[in-house]
Design goal:
This protein has 882 residues and is an alpha/beta fold. It has four domains: 198 residues, ATP-grasp fold, A domain (Dna Ligase, domain 1), CATH 3.30.1490.20; 98 residues, D-amino Acid Aminotransferase, Chain A, domain 1, CATH 3.30.470.20; 132 residues, Phosphohistidine domain (Glucose Oxidase, domain 1, 3-Layer(bba) Sandwich); 296 residues, TIM Barrel, CATH 3.20.20.60. Strands 12-22-21-14-15-16-17-13 form an eight-stranded mixed β-sheet. Strand 9 and strand 10 form a beta hairpin. Helix 6 runs antiparallel to helix 7. Bound molecules: phosphoenolpyruvate and magnesium ion. It is an enzyme of class 2 (transferase). Keywords: ATP-binding, Kinase, Magnesium, Metal-binding, Nucleotide-binding, Pyruvate, Transferase.
Length: 882
């Protein structure tokens, strides 16, 4: 295959091959925009390198060919002594991973050509600074040297000069630094810094390939659920310089505000600087609008290009650009990352502008984004002590204790503490800390700083550029306007307004939740709520999947109903056996004879009946799937260890342990090594006489009572953990007998959960005895993988995620190939027996956006999820249907 593409040969559809940066550089080149010439080495070449440990043999020739063409076009050569061609070597994967992988700039400089660059630019300081940067980046990135070696040398040079400012180092100082750096390279590696530009390029390309597997990149991919095997493309781009003087500069621009979605001029600009300086947030930038005063021609050009790009991509674009001595160059564009709120507002704005239709708008928002909009906000009316206001870079309301290091954040989070990571600026190595923290606060950098970009990508609250904060990491304190805040003290940050408060600020429901609750009208003037309303309404119109809720209480049922649930897909009745009712369950378990057992059941029945009365009333007119008791009974008894200690203590004191001793005997009798694979689900019902019957009597009599009151109760009875059709026949016979005995005159559906692999495989038989199926994907995942759902997350999942065995826990998002195949089989075989068999899913996956897509594809009728995920499920069900 072709491994290298000139920018003019690609386009934006070639994302997987050329990576995001390469594909969009190609697209801009072909749009006639000012892109510095260059070429892209494909991600396929990277994958080959990662697989074999060496670059594909044919790559060198292809690169030669493209380097020749580039040199011809530019009229100069790499390393040319009097006027060198310089290139950047940049990573660019199909999925954006800001700052996670490597870049080497100024490739092509060496001891000779640095003089040519000095002469050509008329600026020796600039040339030696460029060479200094090359050796430094090369040392760090390609040769894996410790970056501090270089930073320390720069500090030493400044100290010797008695200055703290980089800009005070002149050409001679920088020249001396280059010597120091080259010597450091030799000391660390035993080799000279390579003078041959092509060798520099080849080594830099390999380093970019390798950086795909750098720790922070691996961590980022895990966090963002990005597949581990994509690899990165490498872009070789002729250099343009934003640091040639005050008529040069570099910046980042958005065609709309990535925080709110509003249109306007958004971005940051930094005069006399290179791109890396802006993204690193090391120096504070000026607003993009100021460029109009600084350089009107470049500003006007940029505005025209931004309009063209947005029209072309039909979406918010973000852009990196450089001005070199008054000439504008485009270095990157892409459909830009945005906050959840901006995603909704941009989508509906584009509909109003006639750019896209409502289907397309719905495709452009995600369930996960809607979930973010449902997080609480700070209460505007609460008393609060504001200590500063800076840039709201990523929305949300976060409260936590101040920590100053990423390691500190991780440590605190492991102890279950909530923290705010406070830094001057963040860099890619802070990713661990950013993940662990509730929010991030920085004192430097704008909306496009590393902290801001990464936080927005993760949906994490971030306030940046809080210049009033004097962050002193060594002393562990922040000084701000006369207030001192120490590590460990609590602060609250508002990522929307940029405000920072001392102490904990109370939160209130978000406007989006108020809308779903029915307490805020869609046309009340909140534009975000209006957008959400339009898109969820459209999702409801187009979706085929129904959305029900998992709920055990009338309150949850009522909330879910307000949120749009079309019934209950799973009521776990065991939750009704907790609290004071444990004692009755205890008596049931301890019962020695039929009379005692019946007495215990008789105590429970009216309580259960009241539960069902409330639940069915709350869901009046809608189906309520009630699952008969599932967990092993000893879950309702005290722990064996505790009881054993109690009994032993009593005996030691010469007391008679009595009840406790009897309980201990029962607990020992019921003890199971693998309770999840033991006496639970339908097995319990078949083994303990009267247990299922009691529950069914409670359901039936509650329903009969509600009918009598003129209501419309619609219970459905569900039998858990069935593996053989014989089990279901037996349980069903018992249920039907009780329904008849209570005098139910209409038909109550009786169905089963499909949560064992065997059940999925023989679903055709099971369907004979079932009116409906509900896939219990929690147990189905547990039993298919042989993973204990209660143990594995802490035990080894993090290792598995690191090793890329899976990108996300299969308990969170359905494993399509394994567990998903069983769901598909179960659905197909069940419907082969009964074509109109109703099919639902009630495991945790019912509220997971990716999984919902899958359940739509396999033709289920509904998903059931917790009340707060109902809106997300509605939205995703709509998106699945498009
Ligand atoms: C399931 O197993 O997916 C399920 C919904 O039941 P539970 O989580 O109660 O075992
Ligand atoms: Mg289950």
């Amino acid at each position: 295959p072709k491994l290298v593409y000139d920018f003019a040969e690609g386009n934006k559809e070639m994302l997987e091959l050329l990576g995001g940066k390469g594909a969009n550089l190609a697209e801009m080149t072909n749009l006639g925009l000012p892109v510095p010439p260059g070429f892209t080495i494909t991600a396929e070449a990277c994958r080959a390198y990662l697989a074999t440990g060496s670059v594909p043999p044919e790559l060198a020739d292809e690169i030669d060919h493209h380097v020749d063409a580039l040199q011809q076009r530019m009229g100069k050569k790499l390393g040319q002594a009097d006027d060198p061609l310089l290139v950047s070597v940049r990573s660019g994967a199909a999925v954006s991973m800001p700052g996670m992988m490597e870049t080497v700039l100024n490739v092509g400089l060496n001891d000779d050509s640095v003089n040519g660059l000095a002469h050509q630019s008329g600026n020796p300081r600039f040339a030696w600074d460029a060479y200094r940067r090359l050796v430094q980046m090369f040392g760090k990135t390609v040769l894996d040297m410790d970056g501090d070696i270089f930073e320390d040398a720069i500090e030493a040079a400044k100290a010797a000069k008695g200055t703290r400012n980089d800009l005070d180092l002149d050409a001679d100082d920088l020249k001396a630094l280059v010597d120091t750096f080259k010597k450091a390279v030799h000391d660390a590696t035993g080799r000279e810094f390579p003078q041959d530009p092509r060798t520099q390029m080849d080594l830099a390309i390999e380093a970019v390939f390798r950086s795909w597997n750098a720790d922070r990149a691996v961590l980022y991919r895990r966090q963002e659920r990005i597949p581990t095997d994509l690899g990165t493309a490498v872009n070789i781009c002729s250099m343009v310089f934003g640091n040639l003087g005050m008529d040069s500069g570099t910046g980042v621009a958005f065609t709309r505000d990535p925080a709110t979605g509003q249109s306007g001029v958004y971005g940051d600009y930094l005069q006399n600087a290179q791109g890396e300086d802006v993204v690193a947030g090391i120096r504070n930038t000026v607003p993009l609008a100021d460029l109009e005063q600084l350089d009107k021609t470049s500003y006007d050009d940029l505005m025209a290009i931004m309009a063209k790009l947005e029209g072309h991509y039909r979406d918010l674009c973000d852009i990196e650009f450089t001005v070199e001595r008054g000439k504008l160059w485009m270095l990157q564009t892409r459909v830009g990352k945005r906050t959840a709120a901006a995603a909704f507002r941009i989508a509906t704005s584009l509909v109003d502008e006639g750019v896209i239709d409502t289907d397309e708008a719905l495709k452009r928002v995600k369930g996960a984004q809607l979930a973010q909009l449902m997080f609480p906000r700070f209460d505007a009316d609460a008393d609060k002590e504001r200590i500063t206001k800076a840039i709201g870079a990523s929305p949300g309301a976060a409260t936590g204790k101040v920590v100053f290091t990423s390691a500190g954040a991780v440590e605190a989070a492991e102890k279950g503490e909530k923290v705010i990571l406070v830094r001057r600026e963040t860099n890619p190595d802070d990713l661990h800390g950013m993940i662990a923290a509730q929010g991030i606060l920085t004192s430097r950098g704008g909306k496009t700083s590393h902290a801001a970009v990464v936080a927005r990508g993760m949906g994490k609250t971030c306030v940046c550029g809080a210049e009033e904060l004097d962050v002193n990491v060594a002393q562990g304190l922040i000084k701000v306007n006369g207030t001192v805040i120490e590590a460990g003290q609590t602060i609250s940050i508002d990522g929307t307004t940029g405000e920072v408060f001392k102490g904990e600020v109370p939160v209130v429901p978000s406007p989006v939740v108020q809308y779903f609750e029915g307490s805020l009208a869609p046309d009340a003037g909140d534009e975000l709520v209006a957008s959400v309303h339009r898109l969820i309404t459209h999702a409801d119109e187009v979706r085929r999947l129904g959305v029900r809720t998992n709920a055990d209480t009338a309150d949850d049922a009522a909330r879910a109903r307000r949120f749009g649930a079309a019934g209950i897909g799973l009521c776990r009745t065991e939750h009704m056996f907790l609290g004071e009712r444990r004692e009755s369950v205890e008596r049931l378990i301890l019962a020695d004879n039929d009379a005692e057992r019946e007495a215990a059941l008789a105590e429970l029945e009216p309580l259960q009946r009241d539960d069902f009365l409330e639940l069915l009333a709350a869901m009046d007119g809608l189906p309520v799937t009630i699952r008969l008791i599932d967990p092993p009974l000893h879950e309702f008894l005290p722990s064996m260890e505790e009881l054993a200690v109690k009994v032993a203590l009593a005996r030691e004191r010469g007391q008679e342990p009595g009840h406790d001793a009897a309980l201990l005997t029962a607990v020992e009798r019921l003890h199971e090594e693998n309770p999840m694979l033991g006496l639970r689900g339908v097995r319990l019902g078949l083994v303990i006489p009267g247990l299922f019957a009691m529950q069914v009597r409670a359901i039936a009599s509650a329903a009969v009572e509600l009918k009598r009151q003129g209501k419309d109760p619609r219970p459905e009875i569900m039998i858990p953990l069935v593996g053989a059709v014989q089990e279901l026949h037996l349980a069903r016979d018992e249920v039907e007998a009780v329904l008849a005995e209570v005098g139910v005159e209409w038909s109550i559906p009786i169905g089963t959960m499909i949560e064992l692999p065997r059940a999925a495989v023989i679903a055709d038989q099971i369907a004979e005895a079932a009116d409906f199926f509900s896939f219990g994907t929690n147990d189905l995942t547990q039993t298919t993988w042989g993973f204990s759902r209660d143990d594995v997350e802490g035990a080894f999942f993090s290792r598995y995620l690191e090793k890329g065995i899976f990108a996300v826990s299969p308990f969170e998002s359905i494993d399509r190939e394994g567990v998903g195949a069983l769901v598909r089989t179960g659905a197909e075989r069940g419907r082969a027996t009964k074509p109109d068999l109703k099919l639902g899913i009630c495991g945790e996956h019912g509220g997971d956006p990716d999984s919902i897509q899958f359940f739509h594809e396999v033709g289920l009728d509904y998903v059931s999820c917790s009340p707060f995920r109902i809106p997300v499920a509605r939205l995703e069900a709509g998106r699945s249907a498009l």
